[in-house]
Write a structure and sequence with these properties.
The chain has 9 helices and 10 strands. By secondary structure, the chain is of the alpha/beta class.
Length: about 230
């Protein structure tokens, strides 16, 4: 579904992502784990086109999208939920979700979105800025799903969310994959969350992948060592 080959990303003269290559299969969840400052957010911003890449390719179903602007990548099927959620605080919940419909041409919010996030149906007329952190994260994911993506990118979705909500979020992401049959790439530091949702884990350290393991074979002790400060 998504294929990244030899991707390099830099801030000015400082290269942050060093020739990364990976693939994400259809209906697969890939967790990219690592400490703060190891390159996760830079990688995600490059995948969606917020940051230009210095080299390498990004392909969606065989089509090179690396040179496209962000909104064109969304039209090709990539949706992005940024770190910190970045919802529109002055718009209602419903209006926030409707912004995701722009690329599809649809006027009506798909019913499965409110099925997945029933709290958003209850609060659809409330301003996004009045929601809790966990509810805003649900809203950001719902907005991304409204664009009918093939690949969903989630950057640090558990950041600032209480443990009980993290467990519910993991359950919801698994439901999304089952219902929508899409691929999910999530950057994460919470190991219990990552192993709950991921089919495969990649660990990034200083802009390079240093470990890979699959569901049923996760080496949690080794991954934890990379996550520790």
């Amino acid at each position: 579904m998504l294929a990244v080959n030899n991707l390099s990303v830099a801030y000015g003269m400082s290269e942050v992502i060093h020739g990364l290559s990976f693939e994400v299969g259809h209906n697969e969840t890939l967790a990219i784990m690592g400490r703060n400052g190891m390159g996760k957010t830079t990688l995600f911003k490059s995948l969606i086109g917020v940051l230009p890449s210095r080299g390498g390719t990004i392909e969606m179903q065989g089509k090179n999208v690396g040179g496209l602007k962000s909104f064109r990548r969304v039209a090709e099927g990539i949706a992005y939920v940024p770190q910190g959620r970045m919802i529109f605080p002055t718009l209602t919940v419903q209006e926030n979700i409707e912004t995701g419909l722009e690329v599809t041409g649809q006027k009506k919010i798909p019913s499965d979105i409110y099925d997945l996030f029933p709290v958003l149906l209850e609060m659809r007329h409330r301003k996004g800025g009045n929601l809790s952190g966990g509810q805003q994260q649900q809203l950001a994911i719902a907005r991304a799903l409204a664009s009918n993506p093939k690949v969903l990118l989630l950057d640090e979705p558990t950041e600032g969310i209480q443990p009980s909500i993290i467990k519910q979020l993991a359950k919801t992401l698994n439901e999304i994959k089952q219902i929508r049959k899409l691929s999910i790439v999530v950057s994460e530091q919470v190991l219990s969350f990552a192993t709950e949702v991921a089919d495969r884990v990649l660990v990034i350290d200083k802009g390079r992948f240093v470990h890979e393991s699959r569901k049923g074979e996760f080496d949690t002790a080794k991954i934890s060592r990379y996550l520790s400060v």
